[in-house]
UniProtKB/TrEMBL annotation:
<dbReference type="GO" id="GO:0042632">
    <property type="term" value="P:cholesterol homeostasis"/>
</dbReference>
<protein>
    <recommendedName>
        <fullName>Cholesterol 7-alpha-monooxygenase</fullName>
    </recommendedName>
</protein>
<dbReference type="GO" id="GO:0008203">
    <property type="term" value="P:cholesterol metabolic process"/>
</dbReference>
<dbReference type="Pfam" id="PF00067">
    <property type="entry name" value="p450"/>
</dbReference>
<dbReference type="InterPro" id="IPR050529">
    <property type="entry name" value="CYP450_sterol_14alpha_dmase"/>
</dbReference>
<keyword id="KW-0503">Monooxygenase</keyword>
<dbReference type="InterPro" id="IPR024204">
    <property type="entry name" value="Cyt_P450_CYP7A1-type"/>
</dbReference>
<comment type="similarity">
    <text>Belongs to the cytochrome P450 family.</text>
</comment>
<dbReference type="GO" id="GO:0008123">
    <property type="term" value="F:cholesterol 7-alpha-monooxygenase activity"/>
</dbReference>
<dbReference type="GO" id="GO:0005789">
    <property type="term" value="C:endoplasmic reticulum membrane"/>
</dbReference>
<keyword id="KW-1207">Sterol metabolism</keyword>
<keyword id="KW-0812">Transmembrane</keyword>
<dbReference type="GO" id="GO:0006699">
    <property type="term" value="P:bile acid biosynthetic process"/>
</dbReference>
<keyword id="KW-0256">Endoplasmic reticulum</keyword>
<dbReference type="GO" id="GO:0020037">
    <property type="term" value="F:heme binding"/>
</dbReference>
<dbReference type="InterPro" id="IPR017972">
    <property type="entry name" value="Cyt_P450_CS"/>
</dbReference>
<keyword id="KW-0153">Cholesterol metabolism</keyword>
Length: 506
């Protein structure tokens, strides 16, 4: 008996040994420089995860501006020269840009792949995003958000200073208003039933707590850990999804085109049960909030900390409201700016852009569909193998001192020009196309990007209009970015910063 166990043990040990040996890749002629890392399977994952920017900068110094690293079983080719980003986009037909995104979404949110047999392909999901978040579809999103932000923000009738964490404030206001803008509400705006409104608020406050709990473990889920390991995050995810069941959504008024069309698309698939359909909406809730919340925090934080920015923004808001004949009143009549009026706010645009430049750490990923040769801007050609990943890490561009002078300093007017046109940025004397990429690039670029900028701009416009505000500690240090979320988008602050606000005297 012992001998049989011993032989089995030996066979397993030999298999593991060969599996580990075989998973070490040897660089073939024509391929980028390769680093397998020291740890089997994980490769360089731990070093990369600890500080991606530092990791990539040291590899770029060592290997040049394309190199391959083994990360959690995958071979990732990092392209770091921004002039070569266009070359990567041009090789689009060799990449499957959806594979990684949709597989990750299924894994994290627990929905099923759409049933292609019924005509609901990943491609039609992508088209749905473009049709329901861009162009004319933006108008109702923007006007509903304007109303919902004021509904949420003006609940407190504070004439005295009120203190709160700035991140907690942005989270509360943006989450509630954003949730109602996407998923509608169970009451009409002129509804006089106070209890119905309170019940709605309680539901969303509960959703905020569940969202925080689930979002906390998001990086671990993307890394491949099963959600069942995290009991409270698992039940938070299920609670969030339950609120988004079609039977619950049907009770709500003013649902966005995005969710209404997504519900219709879900109805065409037989492969998913009701909870799995609800989880496709949960994926959209996450996409619409997870980056917007910290981006709003950073924009308002830098605005409050920089008197010049506040002065310029205040003047701009005042002028735009005057031109649109909008008056701030405290008698329940909301101010309104449409999409085009919001587009005429270059100072706020520059503040938001600069805040996102400093806090964004997204990873743009494409999976090779086949073996092919990648030709870069510098005429270098590199062999890429099927199923390998080609990745861009825009933070390397955003914090490059050769592109952005004094890159770690907030300069509110960095993106402003005299004539209101887009500012040009250069590297080694050449004009850059890709210098600002918090929303990704090419076909995978965020479809909600215009809405995101509009909603942050709306929040800034409204707080400037309605409140006197100040940081409790005027020159408070900027809280460090939470690096554990690097790769996922806008990084959160590691701790909150106190501010106080009160309704303006009128
Ligand atoms: C500051 C706010 C936001 C940032 C920084 C941001 C950033 C991103 C990034 C980096 C991606 C992945 C792009 C890629 O892989 O190359 C993405 C995807 C996506 N975003 Fe956003 N986003 C924001 C707000 C929003 C909002 C408000 C919505 C919806 C209302 C939204 C909806 C989506 C969707 C649906 C996708 C997936 C698209 C697809 O897979 O086809 N995002 N976003």
């Amino acid at each position: 008996m012992l001998t049989v166990s011993f032989i089995w043990g030996l066979v397993v040990a030999i298999c593991c040994f060969f599996w580990l040996i075989l998973s070490i890749r040897r660089r073939q002629p024509g391929e980028p420089p390769l680093e397998n890392g020291l740890i089997p399977y994980l490769g360089c994952a731990l070093q990369f995860g600890a500080n991606p920017l530092e990791f990539l900068r040291t590899r770029e110094n060592k290997y040049g501006n394309i190199f391959t690293c083994k990360i959690a079983g995958q071979f990732v080719h990092f392209v770091t020269d921004p002039f070569s980003f266009s070359s990567v986009m041009r090789h689009g037909r060799h990449f499957d840009w959806q594979k990684f995104h949709y597989a990750t979404s299924e894994k994290v949110f627990g929905h099923k792949s759409l049933d292609a047999a019924h005509g609901s392909t990943d491609e039609s999901v992508h088209e749905l995003f473009m049709k329901t978040m861009q162009g004319d579809a933006l108008n109702p999103l923007v006007s509903n958000m304007m109303e919902n932000l004021q509904y949420t923000m003006l609940q407190v009738n504070e004439r005295d200073w009120r203190s709160e964490g700035l991140y907690a404030f942005c989270y509360r206001i943006m989450f509630e208003a954003g949730y109602m803008t996407l998923f509608g509400k169970e009451f009409a705006q002129d509804d006089k039933n106070f209890a119905r409104k309170e019940a709605q608020r309680a539901l969303i406050l509960n959703a905020i707590e569940n969202f925080k709990e689930f979002d906390k473990i998001f990086p671990a889920l993307v890394a491949g850990l099963p959600i069942h390991v995290f009991k409270s995050a698992y039940s938070a995810r299920e609670n969030l999804a339950r609120d988004l069941l079609h039977e619950n959504l049907r009770k709500r008024n003013n649902i966005s085109g995005l969710i209404a069309r997504r519900m219709l698309l879900n109805e065409t698939t037989t492969a998913s049960n009701d909870m799995e359909k609800a989880k496709t909406h949960l994926a959209l809730l996450w996409a619409s909030q997870a980056n917007t919340l910290p981006a709003t925090f950073w924009s308002l934080f830098y605005l409050l900390r920089c008197p010049d920015a506040m002065k310029a923004a205040g003047e701009e808001v005042h002028q735009v409201l005057e031109k649109a004949s909008q008056k701030v009143s405290f008698d329940g009549k909301y101010i309104f700016l449409n999409r085009h009026e919001l587009d005429e706010m270059p100072v706020l645009d520059s503040i938001i852009k600069e805040s996102m430049r400093l806090s964004s750490a997204s990873l743009n990923i494409r999976v090779a569909k086949e073996n092919f040769v990648l030709q870069l801007d510098n005429n270098g050609t590199y062999k890429i193998r099927k199923d390998d990943i080609v990745a861009l890490y825009p933070q390397m561009v955003h914090l490059n001192p050769e592109i952005y002078e004094d890159p770690n300093t907030f300069k509110y007017d960095r993106y402003l020009t005299e004539d209101g046109k887009e500012k040009n940025f250069f590297l080694k004397g050449r004009k850059l196309k890709y210098y600002y990429m918090p929303f990704g690039s090419g076909k995978t670029k965020c479809p909600g990007r215009q809405f995101a900028v509009h909603e942050i701009k709306q929040l800034l416009t409204l707080v400037i209009s309605y409140f006197d505000m100040e940081l409790v500690e005027k020159n408070v240090k900027s809280p460090p970015l939470d690096q554990s979320r690097a790769g996922l988008g806008i990084l959160q602050p590691t701790y909150d910063v106190d501010f106080r606000y009160k309704l303006k005297a009128h």
